[in-house]
Amino acid sequence: MGIQNFPAVLQPIIQQGFLDREFQTALNSRLGYRLIADREEFSVGIGETLTKTRAGLKPSVTTPLAAASNTNLDNGLTSTNWGVEQYTITLNFYAATQDLNMVTSRVGIASQFAVLAPTISINAVPSSAAVNVALAVAGTVSPGNAAVRVGISVNSGGAPSSWVNATVSDGSWTASVTPGGSGTIYLWAEQSAATGVQAVSGAISVVTPALTVSAPGSGTTTAALRITGSVAPASDSVKVQLTTQNAAAPTSGWSTASNVSGSFSAALTPAAAGTYYAWAEDPTTGLNAVSSAIAVSAVVAASFTFNNPGGSYTHGSSSTIPLNGGVSPAQDAATQVALSTSSTAPPSAGWETATLLQGNTFWAIYYPVPAAAGAYYVWVETSSGGSQTVSSFTISVS
Predict the structure, then answer these.
(1) 48 to 40, 51, 87, 94: CA distances (angstroms)
(2) Dist. CA 362–CA 144, nearest whole Å
């Protein structure tokens, strides 16, 4: 530390080389009075004055004795009395000090840290798992570098008999465990060096993996086929696909099915006529299933006819217009109907699904009366926009 960092009152002492003497010699008192004076005890408080009286010394004699008067037993001396001494004493404090403060800047906390209690947790686990299929688990741990091990137990109150070391990185851990049999299990995680720091998952139902798939026996190239089936464990995702062979599972081109509590479904449309098979796959367990053959036929272009309902209708009313006509050849392709004031430009909106009757040779619908007045043509087509046909007559809406 430089001299300039000392208080100004100390700097001259340092420069003259008297700092050691000032701090050491001057602080050691030398009380000479104890060697030449009588010690007397007295009772007085700080700041009080005490008056004391005592026998004093006899006066000094400055005249020598005459030899002729040195007679008798008293040597010619005459007895005299001593004087009286009276004095006052006051107890006062005397002190001196010197500034030794050498702090020249603010003092604060240089650093601090908190010691947290060790913890461990397990992330959400699936409600079901499959026998002999690896189950990936993960969680968090504090301190972030603490070793973690995981295990499987058949109850939430008894620790596992065997453990698997997890991989730990920056407070997160991952591991993989494999259930060996069906039933209910619980996943345990604990710190390897502090086995009292543990976490237990919720119940997991372990089942034997299974997968089934079914599809309709026939279909057309314009209508989607409904593919259904079941999967265990019920929480597994399922992928489906249509192929023209049932010998080997596809390696690509899968579509994800909708799974609700182990029952899945999907809608797949054949690309062309032919014999198809529906495949299903459980990516978690690796199981595949294939349906029976599906005969898919090409859809022959439909020809639509119209029956004029006649009459007139009031716009904006809640009534409907009875529309119907024929379909040739018979087919189960979805059919839709709309009204338009144009006989050349098909409607862009307002399509309503018609019902096919009489062996798919007759279509019919109760169509809502338009909101605006006018002369309306009837348009009909398949739901895919095919075989679009317009009526030769108009319906009057006033």
Answers:
(1) 17, 10, 14, 15
(2) 73
Tokens 């006899």 sit on residue: 58
- When the pLDDT of each residue in the chain is averaged and rounded to a whole number, the result is 85
For 320-343, write each residue's pLDDT tens digit: 999 999 998 887 778 899 999 999
- Interacting residues of 323 by C-beta distance below 8 A, sequence separation 6+: 306, 307, 309, 337, 354, 364, 365, 366, 367, 378
Q: Taking the alpha carbons of 265, 271, 276, 279 in that order, is the dihedral positive or negative? A: negative
How many residues are listed for the chain in this entry? 398
**Which stretches in the chain have pLDDT values below 70?**
1-3, 10-38, 98-110, 300
| 100 SS3 class | coil
The number of angstroms, rounded, from the C-alpha of 48 to the middle of its chain's C-alpha atoms is 76
3-state secondary structure of 23: helix
Backbone angles phi and psi of 68, in degrees to 5: -70, -25
Nearest Cα neighbor of 204 from 261, 124, 126 is: 126
DSSP class of 91: B
**219-275 pLDDT, tens digit each:** 888 778 999 999 999 989 999 999 999 999 999 999 999 999 999 999 999 988 999
Name residue, tokens 């075989």: 387
Residue 209: name the closest of 264, 149, 131 by CA. 131
Q: Could you give the CA distance from residue 194 to residue 118 in angstroms, rounded to a whole number?
A: 8
pTM, to two decimals = 0.46
Q: Residue 47 carries which DSSP code?
A: T
CB 375 within 8 A of CB 388: no
